[in-house]
Amino acid sequence: VSNETGSTTSEGNGSNDSESSNDSGSDSEEAINLRLNAGLSGEDANTLAFTTPWMETVEDETKVTFDAFFSEELVPMGEEIRALQDGTIDVAAPILPTYNPDLYPLSDVAMLPLKSSDALIAAKAFADLISSDVELQDGKTFTDLEYGQHGMKALPVQPVSQYTIGAVDQELKTAESLQNLQLRTGGRAHEIFVQELGSSSVSMPWSEEFEALSRGALDGTVRSVVDYKPYGFDEMLTNSIEGLSIGHFPLVWLMTEEKWDGLPEDIQKVMEDAAYELAESTVKRDAFDESVEQAKADGIQFTPYDELDQDAKDLIEQASLRTWEIWIESKESEGLPGLETAILWRDLIIKNGGEVFDSMMELE
Amino acid sequence: METLFIILFILIFLLLLFGMYIHSILLFVGILGLVLLEGPGYIVNFLQSDPFIRTASYSLTTVPLYVLMAQFIVRAGVVEDLYSFVYNISRGRSGILGILTVLAGGMLGAVSGSSNASAGAFGQVSVPQLVKRGYNDGLAGATAAVAGSLSAVIPPSIILILWGVATETPIGAMFIGSVVPGIVMMLTIIVIMLFLLQKNNKKKNEEVAFTKEELPISRSIIALTLTGLIVFIVFYGIFAGIFTPTEAGAVGALSSFIVALILGKVNMKTLSDSFADTVKLTSMILMIMIGAQIFGRFVSVSLLPRKIIELLSTLIEYPILILIILSIIYFLLFMFIEGAAVIIMTAPIVLPLIVEMGVDKIWFGVVVGILCTIGLLTPPVGLSVYAVAGVSRISSEKIFKYTLLYSLLIALVVIGLAIAFPGIITYLPSQM
Amino acid sequence: MSDNFSKIYQFFIYIKKLGMLVSGFAVFIMMFYICLDVLFRNIEGSISLYAYEITSNYFMPLIVFPAMAFAFEKGMMPRIDFIIGKSKNIKFQLFVSICLIILEIVLMLLLIFYGFQYFLTSVDSGLAFTAGGTNYPLWPVILLVPISFSLVLIEMVFLLIKNIASKKPSFVVIEDKK
Ligand code: NA
Ligand code: NA
To answer: Domain boundaries in chain B?
Structure first.
């Protein structure tokens, strides 16, 4: 159940005492203390790019203070909705929707492989997706279908920077070099992609991943380069591909609609604006560039996508397209608007400067 | 707020004295604390899902699997023969058997990341052998528990991985940094054990006369070969990258099952007995973990660790003092709260303090790892001791009497050395 | 103790042993399952058994919960025997042990009540885990939680009756004859 665990910086100590958050009044003059839960660690790149600055903005501009809990200290991942409904926490920022496809079946659309994109493109596209008024099914938007049906108010969090393949002692250049590997994946879309490449997809928690990579029980991992150092993979991985985007790991901010509606309008506006403004922040993209520089300095060899052999590029394009097709098929067979969601996401990625393979443009 | 804590603390001690189940104390005080802090509605979510979610954990598979492995090994009879063999060639010096057990603990530590699983295995395998050859119950149990606890210090270590990700400390560097303290800890354990053994034998006031144990050469060869084979399969599999340390639990259990099968020691009775011993231990460990989880939730919600550590930061000019106080705080937290929970609730608050003081993050991570290991040996929440007590049927108080001494001395020696000579941790990683 | 008490308790022992066997077989099968997963993974281009998802979500609860009452019966749950064991005053000992058993019953009632609520929620919301794109329902294993704590509750009630009837403090219904 719990896939990630970590910790926090010392936010959340703004309140003098832990007065119950239930007495938050409607008058914006009154101090409101909210209990915020993040499944990720307080040192995590996503926390530093979203949760911390978002809380700071809200604390600066309103009377709201937060008691922040990180690394599943209070609520395990996947349990956020119940915890929000029961009042165990007031805000979940962020949740990791792809870990619970039973609750959020469409959110992993963001993990579908693209041709190229970066953290900023993905953040803007995801913010557009959350605020989109395109009706996907029965007059419902993406946010209605995914979060509204659970009675949740959702705000966008920047997705994780683009994923790529990292491998141990395996130069990634030819089509063959991408096959017969044992690669760790963290979601269904990436599992399909790896299988379509002709490799094996392995799932395990990160605490196992470290040992598995260091002993060779795994040949590599499908992750963003920003994860290499925090999880210690920078010491093991030797090769990676640059300029490829095997999708983005989505993150979402949630609060119950009931609790949200109880907040004064000016606070709602600050909270909402802060989230949408962070979608324009370059922090994640800069952190990604830094991570790549660091990884190169540590001796990880990056093959630029353009320098891959043609057969490798063909294989990646073919596997990417098949991933989209299989993903859409499986969602449609569950009665979900898989095709409409995929097309909406594709168009938002392109609108914000990303690229998909030509064959994906033919999806209608 | 402070009064609440004092009252609850007294309550814990009273309930302990009255002999309430450990898991019930944690559960009861955790629920009471949460209700008093936040009102009765606040426990709902935790009580609903925590028991299930705590249990549905992949890394905990090592607990039943390592214990099952030990069951098969013991029932195959090879351990008995192995200890007899060593007893004979060491001419009856029982100290050698204890040393062998501790060294085996270090070896198992190189493939297992979990102390509880290893302690359970040693309780099964070694305790009866040690008791048979002159160790009193408590000392035998304690030796198994401390030998098992080496698994959390000698890499790989689940607890160091957890700390590494929580604080962005390089995990590989901490693994290398913990090698020397692991060896120091092993030596410390051996010295303490020999001392306790001698004292124990003096008290009995009789020399246990050495009589060579009956053991045909063929059986020694079989015992050595088959044990060697299991060890080889597990080590080779992990270091050749065929499976992970967690999966090694399953492979090791299967190998020992096959060994027991070859030796003709498997029948419905042994299978049923092995199952019974394995699952009752696993259920007990998990029941305590569930209680510890709820208690941990209360400590988290109370923000108490945050407040204590903020208070500490006023002493920033005296870094050594802070380190000593922090070590004591961790020692106490690990006494009462389960290890992973302590790390998650303290890492975020301790880290900025550590960084501000300019303390090496690798050094600090290894120190916390050692303190966490020690916490598995201390009452009231000493899971390694309960694991040994559970499989060996020795009362946990008897074992705690010795492990408490072990843990205080290990803390004093190993943590003391680490503070006085940080190089014993930081030198190796700096050579990477 | 009356014959009826013994008879009913004998039947209950049988139930708990059944639970133990379910848990035991779950460990045994998990052992093979993980080994098979390792084997398949190391054979090129093969299928995955999703050992990580299946073991954590299905095997672990199956190992832990059915055997829970059995563990209580065998006196596995640790407690520190200071006062009850050492005090000479049997009446005081008996009073304390009865209080503790009642407290245990209350705790079990809470775990059963909320565990059952969680089970209802899991059915209601279709709580599931995913492996290889398939959703596997969690309600069957979540149901194990209130069931297993109910068995513990029954064990505690037997223990309470025994303590009251025999006027001697005890934490196991049938003493271990070592
Ligand atoms: Na270890
Ligand atoms: Na402890």
So the answer is: 11-430
Domain membership of residue C172 (yes or no) is no
User: Please, which residues bridge with residue A69 across strands?
Assistant: A37
**Residue partners of B20: CB distance under 8 A and separation at least 6:** B28, C79, C100, C103
Report ipTM for this prediction.
Answer: 0.88
Residues with CB under 5 A from ligand 2 (ion): B 335, 375, 378, 381-382
The pTM for the full model equals 0.88
Give the residue numbers spanning the domain of C157: 3-166
Q: Residue C88: count other Cβ atoms within 10 Å of its Cβ.
A: 6
pLDDT in tens, chain C (178 residues): 577 888 999 999 999 999 999 999 999 999 999 999 999 888 865 678 899 999 999 999 999 999 999 999 998 898 877 666 666 788 888 898 899 999 999 999 999 999 999 999 999 988 999 888 888 999 999 999 999 999 999 999 999 999 998 878 888 888 754 3
DSSP C79: B
Q: Is residue B69 a contact partner of residue B252, using CB atoms and an 8 Å limit?
A: yes
Of C41, C130, C135, the CB nearest to A202: C41
Question: Pick from A10, A18, A235: which is nearest to B348 by CB?
Answer: A10
* Residue C25 counted as domain residue: yes
| Buried residues in A66-95 as b, exposed as e (16+ CB within 10 A) | bbbbbbbbbbbbbbbbbbbbbbbbbbbbbb
C175 lies in a domain?
Answer: no
Residue C171 belongs to a domain: no
Segments of chain B with pLDDT less than 70? 203-209, 432
Contacts of B251 (CB under 8 A, 6+ apart): B233, B234, B237, B243, C34, C35, C38
Residue C89, SS3 per DSSP:
coil
Cα-to-centroid distance, C170 and ligand 2 (Å): 26
Number of domains forming the structure of chain C: 1
Asked if B272 and C104 come within 8 Å (Cβ–Cβ), the reply is no
Distance between Cα C78 and ligand 2 center (Å): 13
Could you report the per-residue pLDDT of B7-61, keeping only the tens digit for each?
998 999 899 888 899 999 999 999 999 999 999 999 999 999 999 999 998 888 9
Chain C residue with CA closest to A217: the answer is: C42
